[in-house]
């Protein structure tokens, strides 16, 4: 089972708000953004949210789960421990796909929300969902509005776009999550 070390948040909501003001030709403000404003700009996915960034590190993440995350490439950087024989002294040829790796990431808020749509989906592997849930749970401790916007694709779109739906859209839990997600609009 993978564990996570949440390293830090870079950027502040004041910086996000000031960047938003720049886009509409307003001067920097002095007022801290409200929770409602934060949620609304996140839901709108306006470009200033990319000033808010997160850094975390999974320990003992199965290699094949790490591969799922490495597929995400916009707004995120990956640093994965090598399995190269010349670096580790161990023959990589026979290594199992569930061999543990250390996987560190640096991602902006928009990328975190996008990854959530794919990796919190009922069609994602349970191991991948669990690893991503660790990230979202850590983000919730420091930036709850961002975590509230980390939802599966069906909640984001209002329907399931998968070829083989998991059935979540037909549950009361889905309706509750959609209502909570849309609460700030």
Give a short summary of the structure.
The chain is of the alpha+beta class and 185 residues long. The protein has helices at residues 13-23, 35-44, 63-70, 85-88, 109-119, 126-142, 144-148, 153-157, 172-182, and strands at residues 3-10, 53-62, 76-80, 100-108.
What does this structure look like?
With 185 residues, this protein is of the alpha+beta class. The protein has a single domain, classed as Gyrase A, domain 2. The protein is built from nine helices and four strands; from the N terminus they run E-H-H-E-H-E-H-E-H-H-H-H-H. It has helices at residues 13-23, 35-44, 63-70, 85-88, 109-119, 126-142, 144-148, 153-157, 172-182; strands at 3-10, 53-62, 76-80, 100-108. It has a four-stranded antiparallel beta sheet with strand order 1-2-4-3. The radius of gyration is 18 Å and the shape is globular. The mean pLDDT is 94.
Topology:
Elements: E1 3-10, H1 13-23, H2 35-44, E2 53-62, H3 63-70, E3 76-80, H4 85-88, E4 100-108, H5 109-119, H6 126-142, H7 144-148, H8 153-157, H9 172-182
Antiparallel strand pairs: 1-2, 2-4, 3-4
Report the sheet with the most strands, covering strand number, pairing sense and barrel closure: 4 strands, antiparallel
CATH C-level class is: Alpha Beta
Give the tally of structural domains: 1
Tell me the strand order in the biggest sheet: 1-2-4-3
CATH architecture label: 2-Layer Sandwich
Distance between the termini: 37 Å
Give the averaged pLDDT, no decimals: 94
Name the shape in a single word.
Answer: globular
**What's the Cα radius of gyration?**
18 Å
Q: Could you name the CATH topology?
A: Gyrase A, domain 2
- What low-confidence regions span 5 or more consecutive residues with pLDDT below 50? none
């Amino acid at each position: 089972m993978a564990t996570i070390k949440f390293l830090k948040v870079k950027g502040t909501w004041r910086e996000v708000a000031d960047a938003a003001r720049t886009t509409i030709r307003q001067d920097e403000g002095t007022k801290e953004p409200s929770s409602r404003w934060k949620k609304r700009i996140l839901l709108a996915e306006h470009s200033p949210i990319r000033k808010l960034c997160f850094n975390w590190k999974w320990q003992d993440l199965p290699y094949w789960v790490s591969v799922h995350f490495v597929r995400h490439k916009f707004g995120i950087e990956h640093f994965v421990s090598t399995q190269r024989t010349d670096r580790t002294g161990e023959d990589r040829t026979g290594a199992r796909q569930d061999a543990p790796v250390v996987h560190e990431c640096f991602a902006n808020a928009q990328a975190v929300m996008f990854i959530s749509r794919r990796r919190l989906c009922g069609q994602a592997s349970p191991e991948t969902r669990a690893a991503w849930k660790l990230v979202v749970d850590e983000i919730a401790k420091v930036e709850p509005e961002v975590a509230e916007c980390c939802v599966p694709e069906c909640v984001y779109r209002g329907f399931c776009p998968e070829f083989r739906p998991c059935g979540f859209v037909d549950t009361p839990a889905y309706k509750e999550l959609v209502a909570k997600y849309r609460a700030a609009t």
